[in-house]
Amino acid sequence: MTINVLSYASHSATDSLKPFKFERRDPRPNDVVIDILFCGICHSDIHSARSEWGEANYPLVPGHEIVGRVCATGDKVVKHKVGDMVGVGCLVDSCHHCQSCNEGLEQYCDNGFTATYNSEDKIGGTPELFTMGGYSDKITVDERFVLHIPEGLDPAATAPLLCAGITTYSPLKHWGVSVGHKVGIIGLGGLGHMGVKFAHAMGAFVVMITTSPEKGMDAKKLGADEVLLSTDGVAMEAARNSFDFLLNTIPVGHNVDPYIALLKRDATMVIVGAVESLTQVNGAQFIFRRRHMAGSLIGGLPETQEMLDFCGKHNIVCDIEEIKIQDVNEAYDRTVKSDVKYRFVIDMGSLKDS
Ligand code: NAP
Ligand code: ZN
After folding, report:
1. pTM
2. Interhelix angle 190-201/164-174, nearest 10 degrees
3. What is the mean pLDDT of each run of 10 residues along the chain (354 residues)?
4. Contact 261/285 with Cβ under 8 angstroms?
5. Boundary of a domain, candidates 263, 295, 327
6. Statement to judge: residues 198 and 54 lie in one domain
7. Residue 173 DSSP one-character state
8. Residue 17: DSSP 8-state
9. Using an 8 Å Cβ cutoff, are 204 and 182 in contact?
10. Which CA distances in Å does 12 have to 53, 68, 129?
């Protein structure tokens, strides 16, 4: 037996997303089945649906910012019960025995994690052989990859925490951002706006570094203390050597030198956006001030739950534009133009009208 699922899928790099029906597995002993209520639109969904990160496996159902209610459980499930509000992020499986998995860093699984979509489904999920994401009405997931959503958080505005939230929370924690640090968040999109909120909540002095002058006022409302326009050469020059930490969410390859120049001696810039070649990096920028550049991938399951609990405690959610699934293609185009405040979230109830 399988579960019939309604979804929206991409069928080629150039096609728009269209309604698509497929089947998911019935719950195994450790699985939960979730009625999906909301799913965020991450820029990674667009990169994947359009084969910008290598040839995708079509049909591809994107979506890894999933919030919904448990509607069925396998008989060995202990963490969740029918009716619970839960979330699923970018991961649905990993090997569970390598050093990274043992440390709760499943995103760095030495044997390769299984992503929520477009990943070979090693334990068998759908007839299509590849995992299918959250632009759908139901999903079956091993309970170890299902997160508890704290009470009181708006479910739609919580959905993007499952990727945009953890991807910014994790490096800020790992590099010890706290009171007294001057932190720059580069790019005010889905990830960037959460980076601002988290860095502010951790007590840092936060500078929003943006290409869009009109986003300045918003950045301050989100928690930024200052705004630095990266296209303003004079302002960038004046800000040289002043940052303790930079979180760079720019979604494409770019010249990193103007940003590295902003770092103090021994400070670090973490790349989370450009999953591709950076067009220019001058070694002298690192050598003369012992600066660092690093990368970071989402976060493991324990840290994702910690982030959600932190959001529950501090009442932090995402600023979203809620849409119907029928508007997903327009939302993709607007996201690529940096025209979203600050995350599109799809109401999956709209799927039944497809
Ligand atoms: P997004 O909502 O499109 O935001 C990206 C922001 O970057 C834009 O709003 C814009 O902000 C700025 N930007 C865009 N193009 C730029 C350019 N050419 N030069 C300088 N700035 C530019 O995207 P997102 O969903 O936040 O995702 C950002 C990137 O992170 C994507 O590539 C995504 O695939 C990746 N990602 C990585 C991870 C990970 O684990 N590392 C997880 C999720 C997503 P301004 O208007 O303020 O300049
Ligand atoms: Zn994402």
Report:
1. 0.96
2. 40
3. 94 97 94 98 97 93 98 97 98 97 98 96 76 97 97 97 98 98 97 98 98 93 98 98 98 96 98 93 96 98 98 97 98 96 97 91
4. yes
5. 295
6. no
7. H
8. P
9. yes
10. 13, 28, 17
Sign of the torsion angle spanned by Cα atoms 32, 37, 41, 47 = positive
| Ligand 1 atom 17 nearest Cα | 250
Residues 98 and 171 placed together within one structural domain of the fold: no
User: What is the identity of the amino acid at 98?
Assistant: C
Give strand ranges (E) for 230-327.
Answer: 243-248, 263-271, 292-295, 320-324
The answer to the question of residue 185 being in a domain is: yes
Paired with 164 in beta bridges are none
Tokens of 73: 């459980």
Q: Is residue 308 assigned to a domain?
A: no
| Structural domains counted in the chain | 2
Structure tokens at 147: 């997160």
Residue 67's SS3 state is strand
| Phi/psi at 143 (5° precision) | -60, -25
Residues 93 and 39 in one domain: yes
Ligand 1 site residues, Cβ closer than 6 angstroms: 42-44, 47, 163-164, 167, 187-192, 210-212, 215, 249-252, 254, 272-273, 275, 296-298, 335, 338, 340
Residue 172 lies in a domain: yes
* Residues 138 and 279 sit within 8 Å (Cβ to Cβ): no
Main-chain phi, psi angles of 173, to 5 degrees: -70, -45
Q: What CATH number does residue 49 fall under?
A: 3.90.180.10
E-strand stretches of the chain:
2-9, 18-25, 31-40, 66-73, 85-88, 91-93, 114-115, 138-142, 147-148, 182-186, 205-210, 226-229, 243-248, 263-271, 292-295, 320-324, 343-347
What one-letter code names the amino acid at 43?
Answer: H
Please identify every residue whose CB atom is under 5 Å from ligand 2, which is an ion.
Answer: 42, 44, 163
- The 8-class DSSP code of residue 26 comes to P
Nearest protein Cα to ligand 1, atom 30:
273
What residue type is 53 in one-letter code? W
Q: In what order do the strands lie in the sheet with 226-229?
A: 226-229, 205-210, 182-186, 243-248, 263-271, 292-295
